Every structure is written in C-alpha cells, then in structure tokens.
Prior knowledge:
The structure holds two protein chains of two kinds.
Chain A lengths: L1 H19 L24 E4 L14 H5 L5 E7 L11 E9 L8 H5 L5 E5 L12 E2 L1 H4 L34
Antiparallel strand pairs in A: 1-4, 2-3, 3-5
Chain B lengths: L1 H14 L9 H4 L5 H7 L2 H4 L4 E5 L11 E7 L2 E8 L7 H6 L7 H5 L6 H16 L5 H30 L2 H22 L8 E2 L2 E2 L7 H23 L3 H7 L7 H6 L5 H5 L6 H4 L20 H25 L24 H12 L7 E9 L2 E9 L5 E7 L1 H6 L2 H5 L4 H11 L3 H5 L1
Antiparallel strand pairs in B: 1-2, 2-3, 4-5, 6-7, 7-8
Amino acid sequence: MGLIKDVLTKLPTGFATVLKTLKDKPVTVQYPEETRPMSARFRGRHHLKRYDDGLERCIGCSLCAAACPADAIYVEAAENTNEERYSPGERYSKTYEINMLRCIFCGYCEDACPTNAIVLESLEFPTGYTRESMIYKKDMLLESPPISVAATPQRTPPGKYDRPILPYPPIDTAE
Amino acid sequence: MVNETTKISEQALIVENSPQNVVNTEDVQLDITMEQLKKLVSPRALTGETMLLNMGPQHPSTHGVLRLLLELDGETVINCIPDIGFLHTGIEKTAESKNFLKAIPLTDRTDYLAPMSNNLAFCGAVEKLVGIDVPQRAQYLRVILMELTRMNSHLVWLGTHALDIGAMSVFLYCMREREMILDVYEAVSGARMMSSFIRPGGLWRDVPANFGSLVQKILDVFPRRVGEYDKLLKDNPMWKERTVGVGKISAEDAIAWGMTGPCLRGSGVNYDVRKAAPYSSYDHFEFSVPLGTNGDVYDRYRCRLDEFEQSMSIIRQAMKKLTPGPVMTDDRKVAPPPKHEIAYSMESLIHHFKLWTEGFRAPEGEVYFAVESGKGEYGVLLSGDGSPKPRRVHMRAPSFNNLQPLGVMSQGCLLADLVAIIGSVDIVLGDVDR
Lengths: 175, 434
C-alpha cells in the first residue's frame, strides 16, 4: 500500500517538473544552418599568417614540429634571397605540411611559434575522403595576402629584411 | 581445442629454442581454457544448469567497451566477471616517450569526462618531482576548475545512470547543464573536452574576462537544477524500487577492494583526498564530505548529488578569494617565458626554444600525487631518471578500482539490477584501460 501511496503522491511532482519545461525555449540549435558562437580561444583549424606587407610570418624554424605531441607537422626550410623573399630573415618554410588526421588540436604549435605564424582559429573543420587529402600542404594553410599586396616571393631591397620580425601583438596577452 | 593449439605452439617453441624466441605460452593464449573457466564460474554452469552469457563489449548499458561474463540462473546473477582491456590505448607507455609537457594531452584522454582532474594529477606529480611552486591565483583557479570538472563528471554520470534505469528526461537535463560547464572549458582552454589547460607550474593562460560571469551563471542556475533532479528522482518510488538495497557493498569490502570516491563514501567511509591530503590549497576552503550509510546504489546516488552543493560552495568561496596575480610560475627553467619577452631577451629566446624542444629535466626519484576526481582518487605515480621524459608513469585510475568489486556487488541480484550497479560505480572505460 505504501508503494501505491508513493506513486500517487510523489510521481506527480516529477511529471510537473517535466511539464514545466514546455514553456522553456529550446536549448538546441539547428546545426549546420545555425551555429553556436565560439569562444575567442577556440582551437580550430590551423592557418599560416602573413604580415601586412604580404611576407609570410613562418621562418621555417620547425619549433612547431618539435613541440607537436602527435608528430603531425613536417617543415622543410630553405634560404631567402632578396630576389625571392618569402619571409623576413634568413629562412622560410619551403614545405609545410600538417597531417590533420594526426593532429589533436592541442595548440602547442601556436604556443611554440616564435613569430606567431601558426594560429588555430578557423571554425572550418578539416574533412576529406582520402588520407592524402587530409595532409594539408602549405598552400592550403597559408592565408591569402592582403588586398593590393603582392604574394610571395617578393623582390625586396637588400638590408631591409635581414632579421625576423619580432612578434606583435604578443599572442599571450591578446584576448 | 585451445589446449591443442597451445601444445602445438609449445612444440614450435622447443624447435627454435633461441633465448629471444622463448615466449610464455600462457601469454599468447587468446581465450581462456576450461580449467581457468572452472575457477571463475560455479560447478553448476558446467553441467548446463546455469547459463553463461556475454554482456558487452558492445552493450549500451556497460558504458563503453566493457565485457561482462555472466553466469545466470534464470534472471539471477550468480557470477559476474568483468573483462576489460578493449579500450587499451597504451597511454601510460606512450607518456614515457614524451616529455612532461607533451604528456599532458595524453592525460586528457584517460578519464575523458574529467580532463582537468587528470591534468592536475599529472601536473601535480611533475611539480612534486621537480619541486615547482605554483602561484596562489593558479591554485584557486585550479580548485574552481576541479570542482566544475567534478560537476561535469557527475552530470554525465547522473544522466547516463538514470537513462540506464529508464528516466529519459534526466539525461536531457543533465546534458543541458553540462553545456554550461563545457562553455567554461571552451572559454578558458579553447577546447570543450580535451582541455590540456593545467600545465606544470600553473595554468596555460589566465582565465578570460568573461570567466567570472560564466561561472556565476552556473552558480545561479545550478541550485534550481539540482532541485529539479531531486524532484524527478529523490522520492520517486520507481527510482527507489530500482536503487534502494541494490548492489550493496559493506565498508570493509569497499576498502578491501580499493574503492574510492562516492562509491566508498556511499558505504559510509569518510575518505576524501581533498581532506586526507589537501592539494592545491583545498585546506583553505570549508566544505563537508557527504556520506552514505547502506552502500547501495541509492546511497551512491545521494552522495554524488550532495556533492553538487559542496562543489558550488567551494567555487563560491574560491571566486571570493581570487585576487589578480600571475598564473604561471616565473621559474623559466620549467615554464616557457611570455612570448613577447623573446622579442628583446636572448635568455628568454633560449628558454623558449629549449623548453619547447627538449623540455625540462626532472631529478631521479619517484613521487605519487593524488587528486579527488569526480570518480575517486586519481593518482599519478611518476618516476624520473634525470631526463626530460618520465621513466615510468602509472595512473591509479578510480574507475579501474571501483569496477573490480562488481562481482561482489552484483552477486544474487537480478540482471536488470546489474545495469543499475554498473551505472552507480561510474566507470569510464578510457580510465579503466588507459
């Protein structure tokens, strides 16, 4: 009898709780038509950045590859010349590949990069049908140069870009 | 059949008996033999009086790839033998080939419902081994994140546990609330689950400006939500029918089997790592440890639900204590310098390159550091050999120890109750198998 009494007295409390949510707005969104806003720190897909004058930030130091816990990055560096300049300083990355199937999106490459060249920011998600297509090459990672600025390689005056440009703004204080 | 293949492989080993090729034949067997089976099940199973049944590894109620070998007499469970290892990922071994910083993303993936607890256990062990001081602000922020992680872990547990027993709406509500905690994760670390936010020496970065409002939103909303869960389950006669007196384990048994966390406290044993061996300034906070009395599924459920209140109280206290300051140790030998420093300081540049390539070296020695994660005592045994990589990492996973007495708890219960018992011990198979 106790059980029947319980069912009659206690169960309506639960049903009332569920019924009350009828007046609540749905918390779900209709993805992919709608998307939820991402936080400023969201670690999305990688991009290789450029300076405002169109030169690449990446100097081919391979520190991202060394910092990567998943060994997903492969960098091969080559020498810059004033006739064919890709980045400020001595070297640039001739080959830059990220295996998106290995990458765990931990953001260590971003932390390690001394020139803030690699940034995990985009909300587009890497997809593909083959393993080969998931190895992102440099042309897929590098962002396009600013409007009315020549792409790399550029012809630059001697002495102007002998040293790498120091990171600005500092990534660890930018919010 | 199994015995025959074993004999053949033994002969094969005798033929090529070079010392490298000698393999223990016990290790290469793929299935258990009749003799081993006889030790595990009752004699009645061999005559066909009781039934042997596999539950899992693909079963929705085993919370992952857990296989249970059941001996059933009708619907009554005579024996329950958990078979684990289907999700073995070799995380402990992989960590030996990574330096301390690079091993942190691995720890996220053990108990993937409570990544911050795992981060803290590993980083705490590294800090203890190397001797790193953590700034006070980082310690309080760690406490806040730990308690949010506990709530996150309990929410997933409550949702799936209730779903197992048949209460669908609780699952939906728990997932709704969990989103708020995941939003905090995303705001601070940039990832919703694999946070890797806690680093040796402090935190990855300071929390963003909207952290306070996000946490405050949780604190405002949660007490009402927990009240909703109580209305749905606490006095619900159907819930009590399924949980009260089911899966009982005595305090002595629970201790003997090495249970920790709410499973142990449900049996009335007052053991909480936050009280027993305070870490990360937990001794600065006032909170109580909810205890059960009967050690059944219902008491374990009550312990976890009461912990919500305590977690919120700790977060409130910590938010008040929070003062501006650094969140990372200024010891440049273990923590990379702020990145703008490398623009003008050669020393910082060297430290930056050195730490991101080789990492810092830990002295020889062995330490054990435990935290109270949502599931119990999550400890990391770390052995250093003077190199930047650990010699051995062992994770004392609470899910692993809590799962072991499943046979004791489920003896004599109904098959349907077994589902409730598995749910009540709150296992994550990533944590069990590592």
